[in-house]
Design a protein that fits this description.
Length: 292
């Protein structure tokens, strides 16, 4: 019997836990699957549970939550034969959308049952894993503020964007992409593995988590009114064709600046020490259950 471990983040913005566990029982009968269900209890617990699952020969670990908890669980699965699957119950659900995993719980479980695996790239920003994107610009500042607010979801994020925009001063960055050097002043400086920020916002519409490359997205300084076309072009998936974005690809990207203060990975703020950052791709590093 296949061993399946469901790791549920109770803080993922859902009150559907009882229905969720009922759906698990319906879709994964005991005569065919050895199913365990557990919950995240502390910061870093997802990685610990995933490492334990690998040691116990678990076939698939299912992350039930948003991009932050998926990232944490993935940290324990990189380089192993245990696959990662997603039931997206977060707010933005960037990775799930990039992989076309249904947001409907029962349909997402059907994807897990089909058991189609594909080696997926992961990125690292210094030592921090990212599956979708990492950034050091305005998005990183907002992510740092977002972790201190009780208002989650798109509304809470948009409110912070409006509050912090006028005081934010875009920085000049020295950038090296596979040895090619440049200098850019940027409002957003984001390195994408997948094509999604979440909520269908796409800075790198053509990015793929399977191509062995990272996509560098540089947004020059913009004024407040320009956020409207920036948002629309991002939702339409063609911002890379506009004057609002410069786009590059590479395997190793180095960024330095006089005041690198904030770093976000998959939407969560993480510590950034020093004035340099190395972002690199590790191709095919995690076995992913994908929508065939």
């Amino acid at each position: 019997m296949k061993k399946i471990l469901f790791i549920i983040n109770r803080k993922a913005g859902t009150d559907r836990e009882k229905r969720l566990e009922g759906a698990i029982t319906r879709h994964f009968p005991k005569d065919r699957y050895d199913v365990q269900v557990t919950h995240l209890a502390y910061l870093g617990h997802g990685k610990d549970l995933a490492l334990e699952a690998v040691n116990n020969g678990v076939h698939t670990v299912v992350a039930v939550g948003g991009d932050g908890s998926i990232n944490e669980i993935a940290q324990g699965l990189v380089g192993s034969n245990t696959a990662l699957a997603i039931i997206p119950l977060g707010s933005g659900n960037g990775l799930a959308r990039a992989l076309k995993i249904p947001l409907d719980v029962n349909k997402a479980m059907q994807v897990i049952l089909a058991d189609t695996r594909k080696p997926m790239d992961v990125g690292y920003a210094n030592e921090h894993l990212f599956l979708s994107n990492a950034g050091v610009g305005f998005d990183a500042l907002v992510a740092d503020e977002f972790r201190h607010t009780s208002k989650r979801g798109l509304y809470g994020y948009a409110k912070l964007v409006i509050q912090k925009f006028s005081s934010y001063k875009p920085e000049a960055y020295d950038i090296s992409i596979d040895g090619q050097k440049m200098e850019e002043k940027a409002f957003l400086l984001t390195v994408a593995n997948g094509n999604q920020f979440g909520y269908e916002f796409k800075l790198a519409p053509k990015a793929s988590v399977f191509d062995g490359l990272l996509d560098l997205c540089v947004m020059p300084p913009v004024n407040f009114l320009q956020l409207i076309p920036v948002s629309l072009y991002s939702l339409l998936g063609n911002i890379d064709k506009t004057r609002y974005l410069k786009h590059y690809t590479g395997k190793t990207i180095n960024v330095s600046g006089r005041s690198l203060q904030y770093l976000q990975v998959d939407g969560d703020a993480v510590p950034l020490t020093g004035d340099t950052l190395e972002l690199k791709v590790r191709p095919g590093a995690i076995q992913m259950i994908v929508n065939s």
